[in-house]
Target: YjzC family protein
Amino acid sequence: MGERTEFEPGDKAPNDGEYTEVGEKSFHTEINNPKRVTLQKGESFPETSNHNRKWKKLTKARVH
Model:
């Protein structure tokens, strides 16, 4: 089983890095001005702009 890639507010960051907001179906949902945060391993994710969004590591949030 692989590592989770999307996180809810309050979850702990699995690794150091920059995380950004993504929509529920990130592969076809455009978000204008998504929040970005830089977290250290073990820090909690902050609240998102709305309840339908999740946090995702920036390098994994790109649309193909």
Q: What stands out?
A: The radius of gyration is 11 Å.
